[in-house]
Amino acid sequence: EENINGYFVKKGKVSKEEQRIGINAKGFGYRWEEFDERFNVDLNPNEPNRFGWVVEIDPRNPDQVPIKRTALGRFKHEGAEVTLAKDGRVVVYMGDDQRGEYVYRYVSKNAYQPNQPELNRTLLDEGTLSVAQFSDNGEGRWIPLVFGQNGLTPENGFADQAYILVETRLAADQVKATPMDR
User: Fold this and answer.
1) What total of structural domains would you count in the chain?
2) 28-50: per-residue pLDDT in tens?
3) 92 CB-contact burial (10 Å; exposed 0-12 / middle 13-18 / buried 19+)
4) What are phi and psi of 49, to 5 degrees?
5) In terms of residue numbers, what domain contains 81?
6) Number of C-alpha atoms within 13 angstroms, CB side, residue 78?
């Protein structure tokens, strides 16, 4: 979901987490908070955390409930390109739709099983989310956004893996990912 911050308004003090996703006193001026208090962050401080996720639907099964894929991180997703690695694991490349943000990659823990679709339903639940860091010589590397690694520790304000996934931008900042000019 891109531009999620525009629907929310917060008149009080904005936390570092809210600021990082773009929550402010005016939003985009839609005034939704005047008609539905869920968009008033002063009254519902956790509500913005329900937005900014990839939601998977199955076009072949209209009765299936959409699934929020939290392992892919929370930010202003701009597309998700899916492919299979040589070893059969699912790889998802994603961009954050805002100037100065990052490029992400998710690699599933398990491999795709073409003849066992029931095993494939959880491939986007367990894996590693990484963020790109590019060097001046044109080379790059993927830095895992994993609790306890690369400075993503309680000492730096990261309580657990759930916090890293909810506050993906803060985690990418911490590991010094390379900002993109969009």
Assistant:
1) 2
2) 999 999 999 999 999 999 999 99
3) buried
4) -70, -10
5) 72-174
6) 11
